[in-house]
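Please check the following for our workbook:

***
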Amino acid sequence: KAVKALESQKNSVVVSSGNQEQVANGLAKDAHGIRPRIDPKKDENILVNSEVTTVGATRWWKKDGQLSEHLAAYSNRTSEVDIYASGSVADRHDAKAPPIIGTSFAAPRVAAAMAKLHRDHPTLSSRQIEGMLKESLTHQTGGEAVLDYEKTATYLQGKTF
């Protein structure tokens, strides 16, 4: 009800998908590569529903001198994830592993872009804003919509996309 009330006033609610995948990876590492049996509902986030914009995380890797973006191993990848964004404190120009990573860093990036889109297009619904975001400020990584760092930075600085 709260989400519907907020979104009926031309707002968007953005939530992190969660980092439970890192739990499974950590357990497998501790078990010397043996993947433990884990409840299939481990990735469920009670805040995720069809009304909110759910954000997963990506991670930048440097290989052979080239940076590339991939879905983060720790990020939940459930079908409810609407968009991915960088989940590190560093930007794509810094391939060193930052000390802090997570979907909690990805969601505010998406929220900031959506907030500006709402400000620039006050009559549009949350779904329309999410569609505009995906159409104008993303690229594809691994078949998923990922917030494009450069396009979003340019847009947030007041330039057009």
Notes: The helical segments are 2-8, 21-30, 103-120, 126-136, 149-156.
